[in-house]
Amino acid sequence: PVPRTVLLTGAAGGLGTLMRGLLPAYGYTLRLFDATPIEGEPEAISADLADKEALREAVRGVDAVIHLAGISLEAPFEKILRSNIEGTYNLYEAAREEGVGRMVFASSNHAVGFTPVPAEGEPLIPVTTPHRPDTFYGLSKSFGEDLAQLYWDLHGVETVSVRIGSCFMEPSSVRMLSIWLSPGDAARLFHAALTAGDVGHTVVYGSSANTRLWWDLTSARALGYDPQDDSEQYAEKLVAEHGELDPDNPDHANLGGPFCTSPPQWPY
Ligand code: NAI
Ligand code: 15L
User: Which of 12, 31, 106, 226 has the most CB atoms in a 10 Å sphere around its CB?
Assistant: First the structure.
């Protein structure tokens, strides 16, 4: 059955705001959840992922969940533990208890951030590459993927874990030319993740069909995802500004880019 009512956690954030704009066109009714209130959305649930009662109510009656809420940059371990690790566990427990069958988990390239960028001619990075988190943030995404696997194997709750590259209106660095996920392609990918049959726990990379792609989109395409965008249109300008990536520069050597050397911090 095609999911109709979808809980969108992290609905106030950057990606959540983009998806609030784009997903209704696919026929979804979105229920919104975020610790931060959302202007103009009086029915949005303003609650923290620590609030188990609120989560239980939020998932009651939905067909699926897109889980975007959480700290989206590096932070002290205790904060990551509370929002991303315990918060994701609380949400999965609520979903299991309420019989929700399909989750889409916003994982990140930072779950495998210390994986070296493939040199020219080397194979693209497969989804089966071992976890190599580059931060406590990336570690929480590795955890989320494993939690999703457990909830499939043990409880039959299905998940598509999307290792998102960089989802913004435009790529803003040369690294992002390889991992950019356009907002339109993000909506296409989430729609595919919600509607594909029998996903069990499937891990996919989340990016557009970029000319400079580092990873293998086969498992994403197998869900029915057909990316329409390519970051290459931004390449000339970004390369003129910053130069090409230098594999000897530790900031450029790995998938996680600067997260491996001086990770951007969540603004407390
Ligand atoms: P964001 O930081 O703009 O939004 C995150 C939202 O989660 C915020 O609105 C925040 O209020 C909410 N939140 C944080 N902790 C919470 C808690 N304990 N309880 C309830 N709500 C909480 O992040 P963005 O860019 O929208 O990313 C969304 C998700 O996708 C995140 O999980 C992020 O890790 C993941 N992701 C995003 C990428 C991107 O390029 N935008 C790349 C890779 C992963
Ligand atoms: C992420 O996981 C972050 O949430 C996002 O803000 C970007 O920094 C992205 O990765 C990236 O690697 O560019």
Answer: 106
